[in-house]
Design a protein that fits this description.
The protein is of the alpha+beta class and 127 residues long. The chain has a domain at 39-126: Cytochrome b5-like heme/steroid binding domain (Flavocytochrome B2, Chain A, domain 1, Roll), CATH 3.10.120.10. It has helices spanning 7-27, 39-48, 58-61, 104-109, and strands at residues 54-56, 73-76, 79-82, 93-94, 97-98, 122-126. Strands 1-6-3-2 form a 4-stranded mixed sheet. Strands 4-5 form a two-stranded antiparallel ribbon. The longest helix is centred in the first third of the chain and has 21 residues, at 7-27.
């Protein structure tokens, strides 16, 4: 009779990989009650990320208004997002709001709230 000694190590490895994946999912940012990633989690991600994240002043952010070939960035709760390629931000404006600004209060009063931010690239943070 042929022994299948490789099955036990393979099964053990599969369990370890599965458990590692579960642990990684539990440590990810948890959604808020509205089903969106919390902005504070995004802020933490920016502050703990690599030095590739840029720190903007409000006056620097104003350059990124989506006009004259400039990218379009906004900030919400200190996190700077790139809305350049967002379909609803054509030409750097969205429902009367312009890119290059802090839109924290405006987005909190909007019908969609912060849920739309989870699909946007994070560029950096506001100083």
């Amino acid at each position: 009779m042929k022994k299948h000694t490789f099955l036990l190590p393979a099964a053990t490895l599969a369990v370890v990989v599965f458990l590692a994946g579960c642990a990684a999912n539990q440590s990810a940012a948890s959604p808020s009650a509205a089903g969106t990633t919390s902005v504070s989690a995004a802020s933490s991600a920016v502050s703990s990320s690599s030095s590739a994240q840029k720190v903007f002043t409000l006056s620097e952010l104003k350059q990124y208004n989506g006009k004259n070939g400039n990218p379009a960035y906004i900030t919400v709760n200190g996190v700077v997002y790139d809305v350049t390629n967002a379909k609803d931000w054509s030409g750097g404006s969205h429902h009367g709001y312009s890119a290059g600004q802090d839109l924290t209060q405006a987005i909190q009063q909007s019908p969609h709230g912060t849920s739309v931010l989870k699909s946007l690239p994070i560029i950096g943070k506001l100083q």
